[in-house]
Structures are given as C-alpha cells and as structure tokens.
Amino acid sequence: MSTPTAPAVETDDRTGTAEDHVTPAERPLFIRFAAEILGTFLLVFIGFGVTLYAGVTVNPDEGAKLLAWGAGVIVAIAVIGHVSGGHLNPAVTLGAALTGRISWADILPYWVAQLIGAVGAAALLFVTIPTALATASGQGSTRSMFSTNASGIGENSTLGRLSGGEVSSDLVQVLLVEAIATMLFVAVALAAGRGLRRGVLSGPVVIGLAYAGLTVATYTLTGGALNPVRATAAAIFSESWALGDLWVFWVAPLLGGAIAGLMFTVFAPEPLAEEDTYAWDDEDEGDDEIDEDFTDETEVLDQDVESDDSPVVLTEDEATPERDDAFTEDYDVTALDDEATETETVDVDAASPEAGAESTDDGEPDERETPRA
C-alpha cells in the first residue's frame, strides 16, 4: 500500500493529522551513540553536582538531594530521547533489546556511550572541585566526597556509613533490593518511553519521577544507583573500596533490566517493536477503513445504477388506475369547454343574423340602407 494521508485524528492530549504523530526513521548508530553520551553526561553531572555540593553550600535534606537524580533524568531524556530512546542506563538498554526496540548489535555501543558520558561528567566535577572545599567540608579529600555518593555493601553501604558501622547490609540484601528496584524502573521506562521518538514529553517526566522515587527508597540500603554507569562513575573517583564492590551494581541492575524486558515480552498487550512502525500501522488501518467505506459506497452506487438501467415492465394490474382516471377527466373537461364555446358562437349568430354592420373585404362597413316598406 502506498503511503497514506490519514484524516485528522484527536486523542486525549493532542489534535492534528496522523502525519503530525508519525515517528521519524531511526537515526544512524553514531548519532544515537553521541546522544547517549550527552544524555548520560547530563544525568550524572546534575545528580552528582547537586549531591556533592549540597552538603557544603547549603543545609541539605538527603531526600531533596536524591530528587536531583530524577530531575537529571527528566532533562536528559527530554533532550535526547527522540534521537536514541533516552536509555542513559545499561539496564534499560538490555530491556529494550529484549523487547525488540533496538537490535542486539546496538547494545555494546550504547553501553560504551553511556559509560563515556557518565565518567566524563564525574571527571569534570572531580577536577573542578576546589581542594580546600573538601577540607572545609570535613571530607578531607575530593575522593572522600565522591565516596559518600558511591554504592557499596556491608560497612561501605550508605547504611553502614550513616550508622558508623553498627548496622550494615549484606550481599544478598543489596542484590535483591537493587535488582527489584531496577526492574521496576526499567518497566516504567519501557512503558512510558514508547512515545519518545515522536517527541511526547510526558514520558521523561514519568520516567524521572520513577527514578527519583526509587532512588530515595533504596538509598539507605544500596546507595540507590539503579544504574551501572552511575555506580562506575562514582567508584572510579572514590576510595578503593568502591571499585571492589562495583560488580554488584552491574550484576543486580542488569538482572532487573532483563526481568523487566522478559515480563514485557510475555505480558505486554501490544507489540513491543520500537515506535517507528506504530504510527504508520495506525495510518494504514485508518486508510483501510476509508478504502472499505469507499468500496461500500461504490457498490451501493453501482447497484443503484444497475437498478436504473434495468427495464421496468408493468402488467395491466400494476398500472395506476388513478392516473388513467385523472387523464380521462382532464380530457373530458377540455372537450366540454370546446363544445360550450362553439354553442355560444352559434347562438349569437342565430339571434342576430342581420344585426350590426357587415364588414367589407377592405374592412369598411357597408353603408347601404335597408329598403322601407
């Protein structure tokens, strides 16, 4: 079928033609690669930028600091979501591959791009933080500042640091919580990210709020990374223990992302291919409906034409006697009128045969007198 031009369509929050909602073709891989670098850079720069400086410049609330990560997700996805899908997270990329939204060959380039963006943002912050600032804040060094934002287990977990080592989390707890939280986040990202390629801006807000809420919920036990490249960026510039615990924060999020992707593959009510084809499919369906309506109307018209062309044969019984009677009455009335006119003419002539002046052939009256008796 040729590319259709669908009629105007209206939805809950948009009005326009179907062409307004058609998903652009997928961008080349190197463009999506660059977009993921930029998006992850924005995410980590905003998130770590707020949490690193908040304890020094303002009197922070821990929850408010963590909400900065949600804001970072919203901004980053709004900027690059229509280009690459706005994954920003290897777990989301894995879930997208499992649901068929990207090819398996794109996974590694996406992961490399996300890692470059995250580490690049952390490196920029690391080299720009004044050394005296770390001392003034009581951290002692810039690496110590990053360590407060790194994810760990046992006494290196957020819970262990905040309690001075009296309470800590074990490996199973961290793996379980991080995997489940990441699974929930990837599920939201896959569900709300279906319109990102078409520039629908409600998706970034939903995804960002989900990430902020889950980060706050898991921060005390696991550090609330839910993102392997975020954990890697913090670990590289933190104290040595962070790199030793880093493997946990790759395994658990990827496991959660895989579970979310498989769940969507099995239980999703709609096909999960990327949005590139959805709008065209909708237009094709609309065009098919239009074609069917047009075909039905054409068939009706053809039937009417066929019925008009077919000869009509009426029997004597089917003839309308009322019409014949009316015609006969009209004829009789006309005949009576003619007879009445002739009768009047004859009577006038008979009544006065000698009256009036007779006209001559040239139209002048005859002046001859009637002889007297």
TrEMBL record:
Residue ranges of the region described as Disordered: 1-21, 299-373
Sample GO molecular function, one term: water channel activity
A single cellular component GO annotation: plasma membrane
Basic and acidic residues biased stretches: 11-21
Entry superkingdom: Bacteria
UniProt name for this protein: Aquaporin Z
Membrane-spanning intervals of the chain: 33-54, 66-86, 107-129, 171-193, 205-226, 246-268
SUPFAM superfamilies: Aquaporin-like
Biased segments, Acidic residues type: 299-319, 327-347
Organism: Ruania alba
Bilayer topology term: Multi-pass membrane protein
InterPro entries recorded: Aquaporin-like, Aquaporin_transptr, MIP, MIP_CS
Family: Belongs to the MIP/aquaporin (TC 1.A.8) family.
Subcellular location: Cell membrane
One Pfam family per UniProt: MIP
PROSITE patterns listed in its UniProt record: MIP
Keywords: Cell membrane, Membrane, Transmembrane, Transmembrane helix, Transport
